[in-house]
Design brief:
FAD/NAD(P)-binding domain, about 20% strand, about 40% helix, alpha+beta
Length: about 525
């Protein structure tokens, strides 16, 4: 048992026991990834335990993933069809932003998951600008927006798991996802699942966490502790007193109303998250096969809860006519955009909401969980002696990542020409991070380049900044004749158009794909039921 093996591990400092405190998406992704990548032939195989309180419900509203989730699911050994059916999931190919520039009807742009066609960005932007055909930037340089408008799946049924004709992530039911991961981790990966309530922390002489005290099982000892306790941050916050860095100066949204709206059988399933701006924030709309997840994000300094409820109701009336609104009870969520000053202290690593949270725009929450676990596992400390150096590197990397995410989210707001007080406040110079101000100055005469975001593992690379900058109406340099050395970009744009037509002709709709998958599995399910 974990607690009984404590003395052996402490003698040589070996990291043999990982204790994850907290369940939900963060906890169970941590448990499954660590257990799946552990070496069963090691002299002392790694033990993984997850302690999940039966008294604390998970938040369960993170319903969008990045394409990184495909590799994560493959690594832990989940078949894609099992995931899609078990989580009522669908395919996500990016985000469409409605009404962010001026609020006028019909105004929209895409941030797809496929990068712009391969050409020098300066030549590509100049070619798009010179074409003067009125096509939005993303539509001109990438075939994916066309696929999204047609509600197409990114893959054919015959393709191997996690392969696609277009890059994709998922929309999913977050509660079902945690349940699926828990069953898989406990039954297939050997994770020890403890349903108990943590009531305290026992510290070692060097300040590390020696054990967590539980209500029913007493002390659970470990060598590395993963804090997945959500906003409570039981270990990293309450235990280690690591300060919280408030980023609401740049990102003032602090509340959301979330609801699950029914959909008609056979109705289209959207290929992208739809983010619709309103007077003091925005609304998300995530399509699943059996429902839609819809939420109103807002800043309480500019909008009351009742006004937000009215905005949510008006959006549903316009997008889901015939819905019985009296049966929908929105969940009210409060949050503060920010993160811990450090994420790894001693033998405790914070993952998920315990590390921080920024408003749900661009769905960075789950990918930060994945990236945190990848960074841990790519250089896992075999002993306590090697932990502090790794922790320092981890903290530097993730402070960089959080800063870049804040800047990228702010980019969506600072370019808006909407005239409501909320949007004017977003454009105030003192709310714009200094580095973003410098980049915006550079981008007046050239596009975002890789040199502006130089790390090989940028969360949002230069291509993402191009989509938002030009989608929001940012100045497109290079008007006039395309440079001679850039004529290849003109041909590249023509190839995007050809590729878009081919995909439109060859890919099934999301609804057709997912309904056929369910029909294929139905006979097997009936056989099991008998």
């Amino acid at each position: 048992m974990l607690a009984e093996a404590s003395e052996e591990s402490r003698v040589d400092g070996a990291v043999g026991r990982v204790v994850i405190v907290g369940g939900g998406t963060a906890g169970w992704l941590a448990a499954c990834l660590i257990a799946a990548r552990a070496d069963p032939a090691a002299a002392r195989p790694l033990e993984v335990a997850l302690i999940e309180s039966p008294d604390v419900p998970t938040i369960g509203v993170g319903e969008g993933t990045w394409p990184t989730m495909r590799r994560t699911l493959e690594r832990i050994g989940l078949a894609e069809a099992d995931f899609l059916l078990g989580c009522d999931a669908s395919f996500k190919q990016g985000t469409r932003f409605d009404g962010w520039r001026t609020g006028r009807a019909g105004e929209a742009y895409h941030h797809p998951f496929v990068p712009p066609t391969d050409a020098d960005p300066r030549d590509l932007v100049a070619a798009w600008n010179a074409a003067a055909d009125g096509r939005p930037f993303a539509d001109a340089v990438c075939p994916q927006p066309r696929a999204c408008r047609l509600d197409l799946a990114p893959r054919q049924r015959a393709m191997p798991d996690y392969a696609g004709a277009l890059n994709y992530g998922y929309h999913l039911d977050a509660g079902k996802f945690a349940t699926l991961l828990a069953a898989h981790g406990a039954s297939r990966l050997g994770v020890r699942h403890l349903r108990d309530h943590v009531v305290g922390v026992e510290r070692a002489a060097n300040g590390d966490v020696a054990a967590v005290r539980t209500r029913d099982r007493g002390a659970i000892a470990g060598d590395l502790f993963i804090d997945c306790t959500g906003h409570t941050a039981l270990l990293i916050g309450a235990g280690f007193n690591v300060p919280f860095v408030d980023r609401s100066d740049a990102l003032p949204n602090d509340r959301a109303l979330a609801v699950q709206a029914p959909v008609a059988p056979g109705s289209p399933v959207a290929s992208q998250t739809v983010a619709t701006a309103h007077a003091a924030g925005w609304l998300w709309d995530i399509g699943l096969p059996t429902r839609r997840g819809v939420g109103c994000v807002y800043a309480s300094a500019f909008m009351s809860d009742d006004q937000a409820a009215d905005a949510l109701r008006a959006y549903l009336r316009s997008t889901a006519p015939g819905t019985d609104f009296d049966r929908l009870t929105p969940r009210r969520l409060t949050f503060r955009s920010g993160h811990r000053e450090r994420f790894w202290v001693g033998n405790c690593l914070a993952v998920g909401l315990s590390a921080g949270f920024l408003e749900p725009l661009e769905a960075s929450a789950i990918v930060l969980i994945e990236l945190s676990l990848d960074a841990l596992l790519d250089d896992f400390p075999p002993t306590r002696a090697g932990m502090d150096v790794r922790a320092a590197r981890f903290n530097e990397l993730f402070r960089y990542r959080w800063d870049r995410i804040v800047e990228f989210l702010k980019l969506h707001y600072v370019l808006s020409a909407r005239d409501e007080p909320y949007w004017r406040a977003h454009r105030a110079p003192d709310t714009v991070p200094a580095r973003l101000r410098d980049l915006l100055a550079l981008w007046q005469d050239r596009p975002p380049l890789r040199a502006d975001l130089p790390r090989t593992d940028e969360v949002f690379p230069a291509a993402s900044h191009q989509y938002v900058l030009y989608g929001m109406g940012g100045a497109a340099p290079g008007a006039g004749p395309v440079r001679a050395e850039g004529r290849g970009a003109v041909a590249a744009l023509a190839e995007v158009e050809r590729r878009g037509r081919a995909l439109a002709a060859g890919l099934p709709t999301n609804r057709a794909y997912l309904d056929a998958l369910r029909a294929e599995r139905a006979p097997a399910a009936l056989g099991l039921a008998r």
